[in-house]
Each structure stands twice: as C-alpha cells, then as structure tokens.
Amino acid sequence: MVLKLRLARFGRTNAPFYNIVIAHARTARNSKPLEVIGTYDPIPKKDTYDTSGKLHKDIKLDITRAKYWIGVGAQPTDTMWRLLSYVGILRPKHKRTQAVIEKKTKA
C-alpha cells in the first residue's frame, strides 16, 4: 500500500489550517490518517520574537518522524515537497523554489 505525506485541512472559511499527516494514497483528504506529524498555518503573521516586522508562515513538524516516513517510502505531495524543502529535509524540485530558499537564508 502506497503512503503519502499530505495536508489535511481544518479551520474555518477563509482561515485555513492544515495538519501534516501520513495517510494511505487512496483515502480521502480528511479521512483518519495513520499519524499526524505536524501543522502548517499558511496565513502570514508577525513573529513576536522578530523585531523586523516580517510576516512568517508557521510550520511545526516532527522532523525525525518525517525523515522516518520518507525513509520507509512515503511519497510527499507537491505541496508537502515544497514545505519539506523549506525545513531542509528534501531538496527543492524546481530551481525557482531553490532561489527563494537561498534568498531567505541570505536575508
């Protein structure tokens, strides 16, 4: 059975919130997952500890579990691949994403 790292949507209308989950590939997006390994909040917010005033999207992820599931053979979706590349677990698929990551690390 093929496993996927994917996002399961929660939250209200116009205020999405996602759980990062491991699920079987042929199940629905909001069905019960095998494991929840993190959260993702795509709405940019100000960081209370950053005085520059930049907006940040919140990604909380259990990195050891994510590496384990990828090592076992779980396939990330395209969005999850992008998030995992931001965290540093996977290499970016596209050069544009690599350029964005390099720009953020330099600043």
From TrEMBL:
Superkingdom of origin: Eukaryota
A GO cellular-component term linked to this record: mitochondrial small ribosomal subunit
Keywords noted in UniProt: Ribonucleoprotein, Ribosomal protein
Leader peptide range in chain numbering: none
One Gene Ontology molecular-function label: structural constituent of ribosome
GO terms, biological process: mitochondrial translation
InterPro entries: Ribosomal_bS16, Ribosomal_bS16_CS, Ribosomal_bS16_dom_sf
Family that this chain belongs to: Belongs to the bacterial ribosomal protein bS16 family.
UniProt cross-references to HAMAP family, sorted A to Z: Ribosomal_bS16
Name under which the protein is recorded: Ribosomal protein S16, mitochondrial
